[in-house]
Task: structure prediction
Amino acid sequence: MSTTLDRPELERVRAFVRMCRWTFARTVPRHPWLPDEALAEFDWFAALIGKRGYRKPFNAAPGDNAGASGIYTYLNVDGRRYWITPTIDRTSLIVNRASLEDAGEQLRLIDDRAGR
Result:
């Protein structure tokens, strides 16, 4: 598995990230966050994270597995880390992103097709 994106993948990720509205993780939407034209791109991006990403414990310092709350697959693009998690009710997926420089910033994008 390669964690390096080719140029078309990188441009497609950038376009997807620009078309979506991101919000801080402490809020959970009751409405769709994705424009209809972004649904296929959401699925593609989620698959890309799984295909090109790397596995690492969540909330753990590099090399430190203590206190981790799960192991996720991450993909770094343009200074941000992206990963997928299910919603609490497991009916949808969330794309999370955080700055690589500031681990405290975590934003979410939800695929709320189940709620439509």
Observations:
- Residues 64-68 have pLDDT under 50 and may be disordered.
- The beta strands are 23-24, 54-57, 71-77, 80-86, 93-99, 106-111.
